[in-house]
Write a structure and sequence with these properties.
Layout lengths: L2 H8 L11 E4 L4 H12 L5 E2 L11 H11 L3 E4 L7 H6 L1 H21 L4 E5 L28 H21 L2 E7 L1 E3 L12 H15 L3 E5 L5 E6 H14 L6 E3 L4 E3 H12 L4 E5 L14 H6 L7 H15 L3
Parallel strand pairs: 1-2, 1-3, 3-4, 4-5, 5-9, 6-8, 7-11
Antiparallel strand pairs: 8-10
Helix pairs in contact: 1-8, 2-8, 3-5, 5-6, 7-9, 9-11
Bound molecules: NADP nicotinamide-adenine-dinucleotide phosphate (NAP).
The site of NADP nicotinamide-adenine-dinucleotide phosphate (NAP) has 23 residues, from helix 2 and strand 6.
Length: 325
């Protein structure tokens, strides 16, 4: 079946029933909270949500009981143990085990208790370190992974493969989406373990508040990266749930590359820091380019809507309202 055939086969399923029971796993996280907002905005009325404390998804018995009682019709799996390079290298056992447990429990019991369709979320770290740029879906398992997060990546690859295996063996509608770097409301602005974009926003904000003269950023600023607003991602997740049913996982990116330098200057401007931005080129730059090839999704008819500037303005407003001390 081609992607387009698959898309038409799936069209009209969940979209036709706005009271369908949908379990969003991880609904308090960056991705899960955006998916909940999007589902509600387009009229879905019957969402099932459980916090980590209410339902530990690593607990197989608890997940089984949950599915046997609640019997959701659709599942979006946005719960995961996520973290940066430092956390991944310090806790490799946690990253591989917790993620394998969460996804194995949720995917398997979703299937066993009659869920019609499940969407699994992974990330661009599933691809080989030296994948061609932009990275097509077909680059999966064609070379060695980036060693710093291979534990997490291996778990996510297993999640994609589980969805494929259940599709093949049970003819069950499990699909996977692989987003690029995300940002937006509910992002992690922690001073030590946040991603580059929220880390820059926090640092410029603190420098503005304290009246600092400069902000020093590691590297030369030359690496190229791709960012997608989490509300765009959530829109694509609902789009895929409603319109896609295929074996292949689907990349979700903005298709727009920005250098770290351009990003830092834009964040500086949005935050309103008027001091100097200094590059410490004695520090490492990281991989020179990382961009997803999202043409599969474009061919299915979806495209992002939020510009980086607009997305940053909204995210900074959210930061001011929710995070700053
Ligand atoms: N952020 C990005 O830039 C990005 C990019 C690409 C892909 N993704 C993917 O999107 C997915 C979600 O990421 P995110 O950024 O939204 O992460 P996040 O903000 O950390 O959210 C993850 C959610 O999962 C929950 N969770 C973790 N362990 C759990 C458990 N054992 N039982 C129940 N709930 C549990 C967390 O709850 P607690 O906080 O209470 O533990 C949290 O609500 C991941 O698969 C990730 O790979 C994210």
């Amino acid at each position: 079946m081609t992607l387009t055939d698959a898309a038409s086969a799936a069209a009209g399923s969940v979209a036709a029933d706005k009271s369908a029971k949908i379990f969003v796993a991880g609904h308090r996280g960056l991705v899960g909270s955006a998916v909940v907002r999007r589902l509600q905005n387009v009229g879905y009325t019957n969402l099932i949500l459980r916090s980590h404390t209410e339902l530990d998804l690593t607990n197989q018995a608890a997940v089984k009981t949950f599915f046997s009682i609640e019997k959701p019709q659709y599942v979006i799996l946005a719960a995961a143990k996520v973290g940066g390079i430092h956390a991944n290298s310090t806790y490799p056992a946690d990253f591989i085990t917790v993620n394998l447990q969460i996804q194995t429990n949720v995917i398997d019991y979703a299937y066993r208790y009659g869920v019609k369709k499940l969407l699994f979320l992974g990330s661009s770290c599933i691809y080989p370190k030296h994948a061609p740029q932009p990275i097509p879906e077909s680059a999966l398992l064609t070379g060695p992974l980036e060693p710093t997060n291979e534990w997490y990546a291996v778990a996510k690859i297993a999640g994609i493969k589980m969805c494929q295996a259940y599709r093949i063996q049970y003819k069950w509608d499990a699909i996977s989406a692989m987003p690029t770097n995300l940002y937006g409301p509910n992002d992690n602005f922690h001073p030590e373990n946040s991603h580059v974009l929220p880390a820059l926003m926090r640092r410029f904000h603190e420098a503005k508040v304290t009246g600092a003269k400069e902000v020093v950023v590691w590297g030369t600023g030359s690496p190229l990266r791709e960012f997608l607003h989490v509300d765009d991602l959530a829109d694509s997740v609902v789009f895929l749930l409603e319109n896609y049913s295929g074996l292949e996982h689907v990349n979700v990116g903005s298709g727009k590359e920005v250098s770290i330098k351009e990003l830092a200057e834009l964040v500086k401007e949005v935050v309103g820091f008027e001091g100097e931005l200094v590059w410490d080129s004695s520090k490492p730059d990281g991989t020179p380019r990382k961009l997803m090839d999202s043409s599969t999704l474009a061919k299915l008819g979806w495209e992002p809507k939020i510009s980086l500037r607009d997305g940053l303005v909204g995210t900074y407003q959210w930061y001011l309202n929710n995070v700053k001390q």
